[in-house]
Amino acid sequence: MQTPQLLLVVALLFGASVALTPPDAHSTPEVYEFLRSSQLPVLVFVYMHGCRFCQELEPNFLFLQRVFAGELALLKVDGKRATTFAHDLNIRSFPELLLYDPGKGQQTDADPSLLGRYPSARDRDLGSLAMFVSERTALMAHWPHSSVRDVTQDPRAQLDALRSDPLRTSLLVFVTPWMDRRSLQLFNGEQSTCILDHLAGTRELRENEVKIYRIDASNSTTALWTREFRVAVYPTVVLLAPDASGSQCEIHVPLRSGDLELRNHETDTLLNLVRHCAAGKVSDPQCLDFVSSFHGLRFLREQDVLPFNETQIEPDTPEFDFSNDDEQLFDSLRDL
Predict the structure, then answer these.
(1) InterPro entries, alphabetically (predicted)?
(2) Which CATH number characterizes residue 110's domain?
């Protein structure tokens, strides 16, 4: 049986686009050997020959290899042959999906760490399977053929390129694996459910040449994006657009789960935001009126942008003299 390390080397040599067949374990020792040696989280598909539901699930299971390329190992297990493993996990029906922590070469007498068992009542569509992996491993799905650009390779160079072209209009979408399930589906789901792919195909975004970038804020490699745009709520969408003078402006749209004003209206809100504010229109009355009509939206011009750990003091704030008595000090603080 192929080891997880060998499969990873092959994927790196020949590219993630190559469809690799995951190993198929036919005995319990094979299963535990694979789990203990894997450097990656392992999704185990326990099946039975002749099982119609297993055959229906297999294509989606195999496609996860592309969605989490280089980050997730897959293992098929014949439940009727690896009977001890099936008994250990109390598997009574097929198919069964189990997610394990990386074994990383642990001792043979140590039990692999089970992260979760896929709920039998949940649909086994591709989006739900990917969401299950994300929720338990903190891995973000990267969907092939998506119109959204995931910021993964060389984040600093991508950020510098974005800042060096102030006339470009972009949508920056900050996400994490720990968002609620609805937000994961809308902002990092597969193309049929992801509103970002829907937006990318609209006339408004095509005509204004708006590019959409998705940033995993839980990843340390993209922390500089999160700091640069001072994002603390997930998901948050930032429209980066020029004003009439060519200066970059930011409009922040934090999508809090309890915000009833925006919930269920995310697509229309973002589409209207682009319609009113893209391509040099951020200073237009229509854009300003639209932004001010939502209590949660924030508008920042280039000169307003401060380091993430500083607070601006209004120029007319009264000053006080520390050398005078306490009364003046407290009067000044009260005015603040």
Answers:
(1) Thioredoxin-like_sf, Thioredoxin_domain
(2) 3.40.30.10
